[in-house]
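To close the section, here is one more complete example, presented without commentary so you can practise reading it yourself. The ligand is nicotinamide-adenine-dinucleotide.
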Amino acid sequence: MSSQASSAAQSTLIEIKNFIDGRYVASSANKTFDNIDPVTGEVFAIVHEATEQDVDAAVNAAADAYRGEWGRLTVDARVNLLYKVADRINERFDEFLEAECRDTGKPYSLARHIDIPRGAANFKIFADVIRNVPTEAFRMETPDGAGALNYGVRLPKGVIAVISPWNLPLLLMTWKVGPALACGNTVVVKPSEETPSTTTLLGEVMNEVGMPAGVFNVINGFGTDSTGEYLTRHPGIDAITFTGETVTGTAIMKNAAVGIRDVSFELGGKNAGLVFADCDMEQALEGTARSVFANCGQVCLGTERVYVERSIFDEFVAGLKARAEGMTIGIPSDEATGMGPMVSRQQREKVLSYYDRARELGATIITGGGIPDMPPAVADGFWVEPTIWTGLPEDSPIIKEEIFGPCCHIQPFDTEDEAIRLANDTRYGLATAIWTTNASRAHRVAEKIEVGITWVNCWFLRDLRTSFGGAKQSGIGREGGVHSLEFYTELRNVCLKL
Ligand code: NAD
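Output:
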């Protein structure tokens, strides 16, 4: 990081500023907070917290850009700029990779294949969508016989507030910023306080490709009574797109109600994996292990409840245990690392509290349940063991609440109907993975599971042109491909009398 992250005086700490109207600016109240390395537990950067005044400046800059230069660009010119953004992220790939892994503690091997390439691709994908989107037209009859032509026009909404979480910072933020800009809106982005680096670094990219000032703004800070709330309350915001916890979504929705602003929400989950006796056992074990332990279990689509047909239960539990115990826990830059630390001390405490609770509730601990032994240099990092439990009743908090750690509970089932009932017995509805070689069963079960996405014999695989979102309390609306247009544009009808 260069211009946005100069060295703070008298220390080697990186300084992360807000990006407003094309410039990196300090907090107007000179308020800063620490950014902590999850590997060592040490502060490595200070972040400028955006005050209400800073948020106001960012929203005004976005509104001016929307009404000004950005609003006057042709779709082709806009789309070409977004292609350049993607190319520039790829040119600066290693900087984004290092910044993302330092903020999150995730392995380079993971971020290199998922976070950074997808973060870049999100700009191209939505540029292509907007270039190729058809509009609807209906010719209607009229009593005078001349008729009328109705046609749809999609126009941007204005200034979009983008609020993103810490688990896949660049990927989830660009998943919103890409379509928002492609559709002609401008954005004010509030990344998670835990992971401000790559979002703020994107400001440099925007300037390098010649993005007009004010189109992309970043304000750093916290949620409640801080930057996030100032943003969602600001009357200059026309719509809010948010990814994070369901409880946060509820708070944001209250602010969105003032002024009847549209929301798109991607929220929490408590996803089930259903493993039938007719599955390919190796495939089911490999896929389930990934869905439980990838990114240290900090994936909204991850599996925390596994239901296994009774005849293969013991074999499956033993197989998943072996995979958990075979995980290489280590520092992000080590290519052998399969699992890094958790993102923050707070998140680790939350996960460890569930580990304690499971023990108190009498769970059978198949493996893990504590903190791994780590070398002294990184012993203060936010490490946890991959953990598997069995034997808890279905109403246990371990099975009902989203933990967001590298852990799962495994329960046997006897019939297909029982498996469906168990999978649906949750307030969430984000994702399910079904493991079976019976295609009829796969269709039958997929239609009955109340979620936004069902995987059959795979996990975390999705054509980006398809819809993404949650059912029940896991979200509102769908994003992805042309579905993103529903949120990022206003569809207007023009009726022309012939
Ligand atoms: P979080 O809700 O705590 O925070 C998300 C963002 O909201 C952060 O930027 C935070 O500062 C901000 N925020 C918090 N309170 C706010 C408020 N009152 N007003 C405005 N902004 C506020 O979530 P998190 O801990 O960062 O992320 C983990 C959660 O995100 C999990 O529940 C996970 O399931 C969910 N998630 C969902 C998806 C999905 O696609 N459905 C994807 C990733 C993560």
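Once you have examined the tokens, check your reading against these statements. The CA atoms of residues 285 and 320 lie 6 Å apart. Residues 163-167, 172, 190, 192-193, 222-224, 228-229, 232, 243-245, 248, 251-252, 266-269, 300, 402, 404, 430, 470, 474-475 surround nicotinamide-adenine-dinucleotide (CB under 6 Å).
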